[in-house]
Amino acid sequence: MDSISRLCAWFERQCVGEWHEDHGIKIDTIDNPGWSMKADLAGTGLQNKEFPEIRVERSQHDWFVARRNDQAFEAFGGPMNLNEMIESFLAWTE
User: Fold this and answer.
1) What burial letters (b/e) apply to 29-57, b meaning 16+ CB within 10 Å?
2) Would you tell me how many other CB atoms lie within 10 Å of the CB of residue 92?
3) Residue 84: φ, ψ to 5°
4) Distance CA 94, CA 14 (A)
5) DSSP H helical segments within 28-76, as ranges?
6) Which one of 10, 36, 80, 86 has the minimum C-beta count within 10 Å?
7) pTM of the model
């Protein structure tokens, strides 16, 4: 299963009750150029799970940072690093 399908499956598993009304996953662009990703953790099995920050800097356009920020997973990366950002989240969830 590809990264997007696995991310969709994780989201679907969280959509019990009303979680999806107040929480979710956001993927957007940033002006570096690049990507940002945020996944709400409150009300999930990950809300108390530690996440060691990941910081990869290969070049000006090949980089990403992934971290936990309170009750959210956050990742930021270069224009070609979206899949790597999603994979870092999924590796942690599984």
Assistant:
1) eeeeebbbbbbbbebbebeeeebeeeeee
2) 17
3) -65, -35
4) 14
5) none
6) 80
7) 0.91
Q: Cα torsion at 36, 86, 20, 50 (round to 10°)?
A: -100
Q: 3: buried, middle or exposed (CB in 10 Å: 19+, 13-18, 0-12)?
A: middle
Q: Are 61 and 72 in contact (CB under 8 A)?
A: no
Instruction: Name the E strands within the chain.
Output: 25-30, 34-40, 54-57, 63-69, 72-77
Distance CA 18, CA 36 (A): 25
Residues 33-88 have pLDDT tens digits of 999 999 999 999 999 999 999 999 999 999 999 999 999 999 999 999 999 999 99
Looking at residue 37, what is its pLDDT?
98
- Cα gap 31→47, rounded to integer Å: 29
